[in-house]
Fold this protein.
Amino acid sequence: MTIENMPMVKAINAGLRAALAKDDRVLLMGEDIGTLGGVFRVTEGLKNEFGSNRVLDTPLAESAIVGTAIGLAMRGYRPVCEIQFDGFIYPAFDQITSQLAKMTSRHEGELPMPVVIRVPYGGHIGAVEHHQESNEAYFAHTAGLRLVSPSNPHDAYWMIQEAIESQDPVLFFEPKSRYWPKGDVNLSANDIPLHASRIARTGTDVTLIGHGAMVSVLLQAAEIAQEEGTSVEVVDLRSLSPVDYGPILDSVRKTGRAVVAQEAPQNVSLGSEIAATITERAFYSLEAPVVRVSGFDVPFPPAKLETIYLPDADRVLDAVDRVLSY
Amino acid sequence: MAEQKTEPMVQLLGADGAFAPTAAAEEFVPYFDKLTEADWKKFYRDMVVIRRFDAEAINLQRQGQLALWVPSHGQEGAQVGSAYGAAMHDHVFPAYREHAIAMIRGLDMVDLIKQFKGLSHGGWDFRNPELHNLHIYTLVIGSQALHATGYAMGIAFDGKYATGNRDKDEAVIVYFGDGATSQGDVSEAFVFAASYQTPQVFFIQNNHWAISVPVSVQARVPLYRRGEGFGIPGTQVDGNDVFASYAVTAKLMDDARSGRGPALIEAHTYRIGAHTSSDDPTKYRNESELDEWIAKDPISRLEAFLRDKGAENSFFEGVTEEAADFAADVRKRTLELTGLDPMQLFEKAYTEPHPRMREQSQWLAQYEASFGDDGGLA
Ligand SMILES: Cc1ncc(C[n+]2csc(CCOP(=O)(O)OP(=O)(O)O)c2C)c(N)n1
Ligand SMILES: [Mg+2]
């Protein structure tokens, strides 16, 4: 068994390298991903190793990156697109939602669309506008797309490879604020399928649910709650569409209380969907309404206000208090 | 590799600063001829001041005062020349590197700094008369090309151009980079501008790089020809020649204002610094290319010209001092900037009352209060 301690950027890099080595139909494409290795260095070294026919520094056009990836997939390639920052995915919105998402159903369910779109997403990096968004809900709302989001280096290493092996399009949301913290990656074996959620911490009083960067916030909140005598279970969603409800519902049936947390704004969000599903399916186990902790329903603010905007452990604990007050 | 084929371009000042118009420059010379010595010196002063300001912003970024900076070093000729080529009643749509243009239109540079300090998303209003129709920066590559085109369509629908009154007729200038020319929005702006024959100039600052990607990846023919197939004539200008940049912009804006339809300018220039303070250009470009462009510096070129025309040392010393004062003032006022009131979050998304804003601001106020006096939010 090989276990290596590395940050998520390196884990995704290693996962991409493995995928490129394993299947010569795998291509990486995006802005500045070749010579520069991407603005976050996720693809560092890969162009040198695999050549500019496998790692493409494309012209600057997101719609074209995704649109041509669709054509390449029709030709039997497995393109992995990088969108430089969350807020720059919108020029490709038509290609993702009307084209990529629907191509299989328009071919009677027969045509695979093995396209991966990597999206560094989320806040906590103090960046200028359009660089800190959590826009997964737009895509989770679109049938035909699969969405996943790793919260740690081990998952990132395996999930990127599984996403590339998927015959359906996968949007891969990378929590950029978690790019640098290191974690153990088991390079020899993976223990969980791509679309499964995972219990990140066990507890008995309240279930906290989140994905990506939010998982570390939830774990931090759980730690503080523990000191105050509350036992918190944390579910790491990993898959945002489809959501793996089994572990969530099992947990809620045990605790009777649930808080769903996300960086995204609340209105019509993934957290809202999960809260509604828990209410429908575990109603008789609930001791309190399911509470959502989200970004506010405003455009992502200037960086000096991001700590107010983004839910932190205190905001999560405030919600924990609320569900415990019933 | 990054070197893209150039064709005889409009140039008034040679690399040595001597006045030597190229053949392509002929029709633009009359615009240069109208400039006075005071104008020359104003161009020089603005280029030096903005370069000094840019250096100060880089310092402030390194000292943790700014989250990010987008350097303009090297592009002063293209920016200052074209800024004066547009009339103050024209509308200007910048991308995000056009600091000289912002300054010349009248923006307080500290308002610009605020955006990079994480205090605003732009925040100024082009309708403020002191800003002379300067629109906010656009960070999403190429989007502003469509906004500018729509604005120019509005001018056309209002009949506010081609009346023969140069002081009243309006036009629009929109800035974007070489990389931006690949975006669908930019091509679509060309289509609409040509279709509606808008009073407008597209100003491409070809600084040869889109972060790490050379212009040769975006274009196989020189970018000034990009508009041709859309019906938009193009002019290639030496962007490091502030006079050429001025003269070409002034003429084409006049033409647009008088109803000759949209035009495109490709200004050849170079980003001497990093793409942004987060970038490391040594990863993708070589020193010899950089040296080549440093030799074409727009400021030293104009300095040589001015010295030849008899400008004294005292003038240059005065400008250096003025630039230092300007930078010191920006620094001082940047350090004085305070944070933002969290309640602002809910005051800026809509112009009219909105129930969710009310609910969420009330929630936040209560939440903050729950921490008591000393546990409140920053
Ligand atoms: C739609 C979109 N995609 C990607 C980016 C990230 N990005 C910021 S600047 C840049 C390169 C722009 O190059 P160019 O248009 O030549 O302008 P320059 O920065 O050289 O002035 C990129 C890819 C963005 N801001 N917007
Ligand atoms: Mg450029």
About this structure: Chain B is about 45% helix and 10% strand. Chain B has two domains: 23-335, 341-378. Chain B touches chain A at residues 67-68, 115-121, 139-141, 179-180, 182-185, 210-213, 217-218, 278-279, 283-284, 339-340, 342, 344-346, 348-349, 356-357, 360, 364, 367, 370, 377-378 (CB under 8 Å).
